[in-house]
């Protein structure tokens, strides 16, 4: 059975949205943090495989910065809009970085 590769952009955006949703609906912030961290690790592995170590490091830093930045942004535009905005930003950046890496022939 062939494994389906999920793009790092999807994993990262899902981790940000899913981590927040899990924390909010369960009432347990730590549970959301575990989901967020797990998705971050999975996305970093995919980025490394797709675009190399430097891209993975940069996109991982962006993932953490997006999580941190969503908090002050939420005070201005609301929690869910903030989470969706940073998730979209990370997904777009991931897509752009991975897309620019030439594939070996």
How would you describe what is shown here?
The protein has 105 residues and is mostly helical. It has one domain. The protein has four helices and no strands. α2 (29-51) packs antiparallel against α3. The longest helix is centred in the middle third of the chain and has 25 residues, at 53-77. It is globular, with a radius of gyration of 14 Å. It starts with 7 loop residues before the first helix and ends in a 5-residue tail after the last helix. The relative contact order is 0.18.
Top keywords for this entry?
105 residues, 4 helices, mainly alpha, single chain
Question: Which helices and strands appear, and what pairs or packs with what?
Answer:
Layout: H1 8-26, H2 29-51, H3 53-77, H4 79-100
Transmembrane segments: 6-23, 79-98
Keywords: Membrane, Transmembrane, Transmembrane helix
Summarize the structure.
85% of the residues lie in helices and 0% in strands. It has 105 residues and is mostly helical. The protein starts with 7 loop residues before the first helix and ends in a 5-residue tail after the last helix.
